Amino acid sequence: MEQLADVHYEKIEPNQEYSNLINRVVNECFKTEGLDKLKLYISITLTVPEVIQEANKKYRNIDKPTDVLSFPMFERQELEAMLKTGYEVEDVLGDLIISIPRVKEQAVEYGHSFERELAYMVVHGFYHLMGYDHMEENDKKEMRAKEDEVLNKLGITRD
Prior knowledge:
The protein is of the alpha/beta class. It has one domain (5-154): Collagenase (Catalytic Domain). It has helices spanning 16-33, 49-60, 76-85, 100-110, 114-129, 137-154; strands at 5-9, 40-47, 68-72, 91-99. Strands 1-2-4-3 form a four-stranded mixed beta sheet, with helices on both faces. α1 packs across α5 (114-129) and α5 (114-129) crosses α6 (137-154). The longest helix is centred in the N-terminal third of the chain and has 18 residues, at 16-33. The mean pLDDT is 94.
């Protein structure tokens, strides 16, 4: 399997199962959106709430922890142009920072597996990197449909 995710661990122990799952999910995201034809990858940092809170404060001026932060490197229109014309430069699509303790809490809260919650955080972050958002109801429906499509292809369900 091609490595389209560069996974880093900050203040948590490296975990090969997390890395394998993340790469499976990212590969499916890239394939679903046709990005597998480009030389892009995602940088993903798995960490603790304190680190994500620090980044949230520094980059978004919000002084509280969250589950996932997304930092895209391209605008949606730029990605669409890259897909039409090709993009031969190896480059990062963007960065994701995911709080593993928060993933564990939310898996319990929503009544599904840790695997499903981590996969969802990766897919959710990926679509933010692609320029999707969920502030307006129509945008939220579009983003959720894309997230569900990827998770369903992988057989990762809410159960």
